[in-house]
Amino acid sequence: MSSIDNANEVAMRKVIQRIATGPELSKDLSVEQAEEAMQLVLNQQADPVQAAIFLIALRMKRETDDENIGVLQAIRQSTRRCVVETDEVVDLFDPYNGYIRSAPMSPFIPAVLAACGLACFSHGVERAGPKYGVTHEEILIAAGVDVAMSPEGAALNLAKADMGWAYLSQTQFCPQLADLSALRHKMVKRSVLTTVEGLAGALVGRKQTHLVTGYVHKAYPPIYLGLAKAVGYDSAMALRGVEGGVVPTLRQPAKVHQLLAGQSTQFEMTPSDFGIQQEQRAVSLPSQFDGVEGVDMSVEQRQDLAHSVLEIGLQALSGEQGVARGALVYGAALILWHCQKATDYKDAADQVTKAIDSGTALSHFSALQHG
């Protein structure tokens, strides 16, 4: 651990004095001030108490765009980044704190997109608060996928024609940020880190990189699109998904926000636009997990839940009809359409359906299981 010298303590004290003086007297930080403070936190050159106060104070006064950008830039400077030897890459930012009200199909979307010719990776942590739901990492561990792969190894997998997808753990692409997990657990509430960490950008395409993320609260789309534009994503899509994820509800219109050619737009689309007709809004969890809070689950329960979701996802990849297939088709087709790999919604859904029914999507998923 780096030493916490007097100069760093004084620097953090000045920042805290600026942002933690109440709702009326607190002042905002510049991009540079936020970045410098966050670098001290990441490098463990800030006292943990000061680090927690810094993050909580930003939340309590409400972070500005400049503060979000500054914190994100510090994270990106600490991130191991690789260029993938393929022209385009989809950066899939699903909630790091997972799912607890539904069974997510998003961990399987990268393999489906790869089967359609579009390289994609997701990223996250094994578990995180405040929700402590089942995560991509836990589901992929259950599948036997190597979740400790380096960014360099993941980049190689994305470039393989028979694979084309990957998962990256934060422990591998930004270990300094991952090391803050204990501090974040003690803070209980979400901080600016929860908002920006998914834009670390560990893997990029040779020509284009597309950010895809979800949201619940309407304040977040302009934040995500603004951050994506500020740090150089070629396009971005933020959609109102189930539990804040990248798959919208299957029975109601979804609000979609796009950043294309530097311009932001928003509109609604419906599942029927993609040929999806379902009465359920999302894939149900097995009944034994109804009402279970993530923070209360034992290790064994978490493993059982991850294996249950894996089984549902594999059945959908195998062509089984039902809600899970609908969620998989809808989520993947939306991304294909956003990345302009389809002429219209129907064409996007047809491409995904073909990839699943031909067994290609399952083959791509299995390639990483055994890779």
Task: Note the topology.
Layout: H1 6-19, H2 31-42, H3 48-61, H4 65-77, E1 82-83, E2 88-93, H5 109-115, E3 119-124, H6 136-142, H7 151-159, E4 165-169, H8 170-173, H9 175-178, H10 181-187, H11 192-196, E5 203-204, E6 208-215, H12 220-231, E7 235-240, E8 254-260, E9 263-269, H13 299-317, H14 323-338, H15 345-357, H16 360-369
Parallel strand pairs: 1-5, 2-3, 2-6, 3-4, 6-7
Antiparallel strand pairs: 7-8, 8-9
Describe the structure.
It is a single chain. With 371 residues, the chain is an alpha/beta fold. The chain contains 16 helices and nine strands. Helix 1 packs parallel to helix 3 and helix 5 (109-115) packs across helix 14. The two termini are 35 Å apart.
Termini Cα gap: 35 Å
Beta-strand proportion: 5-15%
Provide the CATH topology of the largest domain: Pyrimidine Nucleoside Phosphorylase, Chain A, domain 2
Q: By helix and strand content, what is the structural category?
A: alpha/beta
Coarse shape:
globular
Mean of all residue-level pLDDT scores? 95
Helix fraction by DSSP (H/I, runs of at least 4): 40-55%
Gist of the model:
The chain is 45% helix and 13% strand. It is α/β, with parallel strands linked by helices. The chain folds into two domains: 6-77, Transferase, Pyrimidine Nucleoside Phosphorylase, Chain C (Transferase, Pyrimidine Nucleoside Phosphorylase, Chain A, domain 3); 82-369, Nucleoside phosphorylase/phosphoribosyltransferase catalytic domain (Pyrimidine Nucleoside Phosphorylase, Chain A, domain 2, 3-Layer(aba) Sandwich).
